[in-house]
Amino acid sequence: MNNFSYKNATQIHFGQGQIDKIREEIPAGSRVLITYGGGSIKKNGVLDQVHAALRGFTTFEFGGIEPNPHFETLVKAAELVKKESISFILAVGGGSVIDGTKFIAAAALYPNDPWEIIQTYGAKVTQAVPFGSVLTLAATGSEMNNGAVITRAATQDKLFFFSDHVYPQFSVLDPATTYSLPPRQTGNGVVDSFVHVVEQYVTYPVNAKVQDRFAESLLLNLLEDGPKALENPSDYDVRANLMWTATMALNGLIATGVPADWATHMIGQEITGLYGLDHGQTLAVVLPVVWQYKKAQKREKLLQYATRIWRLTEGDEDARIEAAIEHTRQFFERMGVKTRLRDYNLDKSIITAVVQKLEAHSHVKLGEHADITPADVAHILELAL
Ligand code: NZQ
Ligand code: ZN
Q1: Is 175 in the pocket of ligand 1 (CB under 6 A)?
Q2: Dist. CA 373–CA 169, nearest whole Å
Q3: Is 179 exposed, middle or buried, given 0-12, 13-18 or 19+ CB atoms closer than 10 A?
Q4: Per-residue pLDDT tens for 264-277?
Q5: Whose alpha carbon is nearest atom 28 of ligand 1?
């Protein structure tokens, strides 16, 4: 196992009815800005619950944060924070609203052009307005990590930043808020969580038993409960297990002391930036072909994955690896997330554009060995047509 330091700064309140806890978490007298997306929280009653919990506080609202949140929208919210002397922000929504709020919180106190936050990957962020979240979509892990992915719509740049100043102070995880998710978002969320786990697990062995077995438990939960959430959207236990699995998949814990891949995410981000596919959709397309392309380098962990997740214990090793990749693809399809570029009306003409974006972003050495070059990405995407 490699050396590691581990920190997490987010208080979690998990379970039905926990939205009330935000009262205790937000300092008395705060001027609170509620940030949200396209309005799902109005339809499913979550916004009403939030207002009930915030009685007595001075509140403001900023809605309209897009999926794959836009820099252009978020800077307007940062202006509102300054104008109204907001002292606490409450993000209510999925990963996009929480990521967007991380950016708003940092940008409101940033002395220079806020795009610099993204260009420097968050390295220059020294402070942020405190914020918490009420999560309504199990997927990204943003509710308990210090990362955010932001899109500059004008240039189709989808990029990320990290800062310890943007851990949510608290996050409320009430699984009942996810009953109203459309099947497409439930599927995306399961695929996203699954890919977070495997990007930190299907690399090369470093004898990290806790991290490996923890990662495997998360994968088995997703395989078991993902399809059940599509069949029974209002099954509390299913939603609860998916929600906590998604959070644990990307709160830094399984990343400790192990190598990480992230090539699928880096390629997927460019596809979303350019063509607007959902985050989960890009991952379902790219992951199987990254594995296909790098199966020699990932051999030992792919075999471990085949054995422990898919119970493929007998026969030729190469055939077991192939079967494990195929089972993974089929699982994504079963979750309703298509796994070929053609399913999204994209063809090989996209390859040059994706590669150029990766180069423009200097993301030219991807994967756990930093050996996936733009030329390799072109080959990988050829496999995804
Ligand atoms: O905008 P509203 O009206 O709320 O609707 C949203 C949106 O249309 C809807 N939704 C959310 N909760 C709902 C609901 N609809 C009904 N009932 C509910 N309870 O779902 C749609 C998608 O929401 P979004 O927040 O975009 O989805 P997700 O949570 O998958 O977030 C995706 C974003 O997170 C980034 C992605 O790149 C993408 O921009 N990621 C963030 C990460 C992080 N911070 O660590 C890591 C991830 O790898 C990912 O990159
Ligand atoms: Zn992701």
Answers
A1: no
A2: 38
A3: middle
A4: 999 999 999 999 99
A5: 95
Average pLDDT value for residue range 311-329: 97
Q: How far is the CA of 195 from the centre of ligand 2 (A)?
A: 7
Give me the count of residues in the chain. Answer: 385
Distance 222 CA to ligand 1 centre (A): 18
Question: What pLDDT is recorded for position 120?
Answer: 97
151 lines ligand 1 (CB under 6 A): no
What the block records as the tokens of 323 is: 């079967």
Q: Which ligand is nearest to the CA of 189?
A: 1
Q: pLDDT, tens digit, for every residue of 78-108?
A: 999 999 999 999 999 999 999 999 999 999 9
CA 200/CA 196 separation, integer angstroms: 7
Cβ(177) – ligand 1 distance below 6 Å: yes
Residue appearing with tokens 């705060």: 30
63 lines ligand 1 (CB under 6 A): no
114: Cβ contacts below 8 Å, ≥ 6 apart:
71, 75, 78, 103, 106, 107
DSSP string computed for 354-383: HHHHHHHTT--SBTTTT-B-HHHHHHHHHT
Mutate to test the pocket of ligand 1, among 35, 137, 151, 181 (most ligand atoms within 8 A of CB): 137
Domains observed in the chain: 11-177 (3.40.50.1970), 183-383 (1.20.1090.10)
**One-letter amino acid identity for 258?**
V
Q: What is the pLDDT of residues 329-377, one digit of tens each?
A: 999 999 999 999 999 999 999 999 999 999 999 999 999 999 999 999 9
373 Cβ contact partners less than 8 Å away, ≥ 6 residues apart: 364, 365, 366
pTM value?
0.98
- Per-residue confidence (pLDDT) for residue 186, from 0 to 100: 98
For residues 149 and 283, what is the distance between their CA atoms, to the nearest angstrom?
15
CA of 137 to the centre of ligand 2 (A): 13
The answer, yes or no, to whether any atom of ligand 1 lies below 6 A from the CB of 145, is yes
First to last CA, the chain: 37
